[in-house]
Amino acid sequence: MEIKDNTFARQFETIVPEGLLSVEYSFQEKKIFLTKINTPEGFENQTTIDVLLKNIMEIIIEKKFKLMPIYPRIVLFIKKNPEYKELLPPGIRI
């Protein structure tokens, strides 16, 4: 899966057969806030979303950011993948 960091639109993007799949973000003090998942109309492939989120987690690890998952689907992803809880800032629990 090829992921583009579109800094102008502040989102990670990938192309799926149905269209553009993206995760919006914002930054504040070395923290990345994942705020929304945008899917093409009719897109229901949760496995592809999970793969996208795993790739985004690797980018966050590489850049040494702390993660603030705002969007409920991303919070659920972190609960199902506890290895990424180490990305949360101190005092933040899911």
From TrEMBL:
Domain N-acetyltransferase: 4-89
Keyword Transferase: yes
Record SUPFAM superfamilies: Acyl-CoA N-acyltransferases (Nat)
Keywords assigned by UniProt, alphabetized: Transferase
Organism superkingdom: Bacteria
Molecular-function annotations in GO: transferase activity
Official protein name in the record: Acetyltransferase
Species in which this protein is naturally found: Flavobacterium hibernum
Lineage, broadest ranks: Bacteria, Pseudomonadati, Bacteroidota, Flavobacteriia, Flavobacteriales
